[in-house]
Design brief:
This protein is of the alpha/beta class and 207 residues long. It has a single domain, classed as 3-Layer(aba) Sandwich (Rossmann fold), CATH 3.40.50. It is built from 9 helices and 7 strands, in the order H-H-H-E-H-E-H-H-E-E-H-E-H-H-E-E. It has helices at residues 3-12, 16-30, 32-42, 59-67, 80-89, 91-95, 131-141, 155-158, 173-182; strands at 49-53, 72-77, 99-103, 116-122, 142-152, 186-195, 198-206. A 7-stranded mixed sheet has the order 3-2-1-4-5-7-6, sandwiched between helices. Helix 3 (32-42) runs parallel beside helix 4. The protein is globular and about 45 Å long. The structure holds S-adenosylmethionine. Residues 11-14, 27, 31, 34, 53-56, 59, 76-79, 82, 105-106, 122-124, 127-128 line the site of S-adenosylmethionine (SAM).
């Protein structure tokens, strides 16, 4: 297996020694700027009840926990190793009931309908096997008027990177906007930011 394919697999689903010891740390550093965009667009309030899908090493969750002082944060990630690492990382917050993590695929979210004010996901859309099923699940668990924030690297910015040739489905921001609209989200907005050399996109929609 090539190194690019191995890294791509670890980005999709961190696993084993490499996933636990290396990949989650790399993710936390590498995706800091995109998490900053997610936070900006989420506009969290102290009482929010927010779900992050695909939290990886938990960098965004740490920052969300500082903003959501009275509310709750849930996380779903289909990597058992990411869940395990973050369960240790957020031990105190889990114990106090503020953070709740589970191992789950976005396409089968184990939450009741209309539960969250906000749902966010950063750098995971490339790995959804069926974006319509994933978005239908997100729509289901959001409350009415709840907000979805999807952050990702736009296709044009990354299409020539070797790693992206292995199991990534890349999207133009407009395509993600159309997906959200077809899934029933309204007031869909697209944002684009450039942090030094890094291009980040966000698609935002309301239930
Ligand atoms: C590239 S990492 C991004 C992690 C973090 N959001 C960040 O930006 O640093 C992708 C994460 O999403 C998770 N993931 C990918 N596809 C998923 C799916 N279909 N359902 C749930 N989690 C998924 C992976 O296990 C991994 O932790």
């Amino acid at each position: 297996m090539s190194i690019a394919k191995f890294i791509a697999g670890q980005l999709r689903q961190p696993a084993g020694f490499f996933g636990r010891r290396v990949m989650v740390l790399v993710l936390n550093r590498m995706n800091y700027s995109m998490n900053t965009l997610a936070l900006e667009v989420l506009q969290l309030s102290p009482d929010d009840h927010v779900l992050e899908i695909g939290f990886g090493g938990g960098e965004l969750m740490t920052r969300m926990a500082s903003a959501v002082t009275r509310g709750k944060i849930a996380g779903a990630d289909f990597s058992i190793d990411a869940v395990d690492i973050c369960t240790k990382r957020f031990k105190q917050l889990i114990k106090s009931g503020k953070v709740d993590l589970c191992c789950a695929n976005v396409e089968e979210l184990p939450f009741e309908a209309n539960r969250f004010f906000k749902v966010c996901t950063v750098n995971t859309i490339y790995f959804w096997s069926d974006p319509f099923v994933a978005l239908a699940q997100i729509y289901r668990v959001l409350k009415k008027d709840g907000r979805l924030v999807v952050c990702f690297r736009p296709r044009e910015a990354v299409k020539n990177q070797k790693i992206m040739q292995h199991g990534f489905t890349l999207y133009d921001p407009e395509e993600v906007g159309v997906l959200l609209t077809k899934a029933g989200f309204r007031d869909v907005q697209l944002l684009h930011r450039k942090y030094r050399f890094e291009e980040c996109a966000a698609a935002v929609g309301k239930k």
